[in-house]
Design brief:
about 140 residues, mainly alpha, two-stranded antiparallel sheet, 5 helices, 2 strands, binds zinc ion
């Protein structure tokens, strides 16, 4: 058996009968699966378990593509598996962006989490009025 026969059994790529719907379903599979690598990479990089926004975006797009595929196939197992998952994905994205926007940016350019009282880089006191907006500080 040649390599070509292995990749194109019966003359079809990976032996799959390709159609537009199969392409949508497989793109959904790859997008959904790729989220694990994004999350793993972010965790290894930070040496702490983290779930980056990219994970939720890939989850959302991948699961919607798989839901579309499931609806086309009228497969109740597929449809139920992806019918409600977008709710926590979107909720996590909303909370992520709200939290990011609540960060305080010091005049030195350092971004601090919403709970910070002082800039970790220059020690400037971060004022209450600066919260939710960039570049707030006390003289
Ligand atoms: Zn600062």
């Amino acid at each position: 058996m040649s390599l070509h026969d292995l990749i194109f059994p019966n003359g079809q790529f990976l032996g799959i009968a390709w159609s537009m719907w199969k392409v949508i379903g497989w793109i959904g599979n790859f997008v959904f699966f790729s989220r694990f690598f994004v999350q793993w990479y972010a965790t290894e990089k930070k040496k702490q378990v983290v779930v980056p926004a990219g994970f939720w975006w890939l989850s959302l797009v991948g699961s919607l593509l798989l839901l579309i595929y499931g609806l086309h196939r009228r497969d109740s197992v597929f449809i139920f598996a992806y019918l409600f998952t977008w709710i926590p994905y979107i909720r996590n994205l909303i909370i992520h962006y709200r939290h990011r926007d609540a960060h305080v940016i010091c005049r030195c350019g350092t971004e601090s989490p919403p709970s910070a009282n002082f800039c970790s880089a220059c020690g400037t006191k971060l004022t209450a009025t600066s919260r939710g907006r960039a570049a707030g500080l006390e003289a």
